[in-house]
Amino acid sequence: MSQIHALCAAFSLPKQTAEDLVSYFDALPIFGEDDVLEAVLAAVCDELFGEAGWASVTLDDSERETFPISSSSYEREVSRALLARIEKRYEEENRMLALVSSGDVEGIRTLLQELGGDPASAMEVRSADSLRNRKNYLVIANTLLRKAAEEGSVHPYYLDRLSSGFARQIEGARSAAACEALLPEMIRRYTQLVRQKRDAGHSPLVRRVLLEVDRDLSQDLSLKALAGALYVT
Asked: How far apart are CA 200 and CA 128, in angstroms?
């Protein structure tokens, strides 16, 4: 920010320009891992200069560091393999979320069988603590699954109840095995919730009635009581 403001002052640029530049740079994606960055740069350089036309890439940062990237055939194959793994992981995640949104229980069962029952097997390692790493992945998955179920026309009341319960289970997990068993259960439960609770075909009044019934099954659920609770005849 100080560099941006200094440049704007040097060129007598308005304050709004400085704020726009700060917003722009804050929004830029950052590659936090060297292997991902190298794989992306290797693919770009191969496309621009050909496989034998480059040897290194210099990143213009505060320390002017140079990151050498070998142009050997082996290194290029490793880079391509890494990109392929990243693409495959995103494809599997998007496929899973689409199945959840549609309430496709059979499709989810098939997908889990293809993944060997452990969708987290290809997850990114973001922490040296393997248990914490799995918990972090589950927290992210819980959020993505909740949003996918919301797209499947499930009321936020049901989503909040289910996601809160899973959040407690995630933090309470004491082993990698417990986390491994939890993720497929989360996927199945969210998918079943969409199938059971989707209300896209119901009128707003019927949605309110269903929500009122689920809110407290011990209350008086007669037609007269429900009509009174919802202020309708």
From this structure: 44
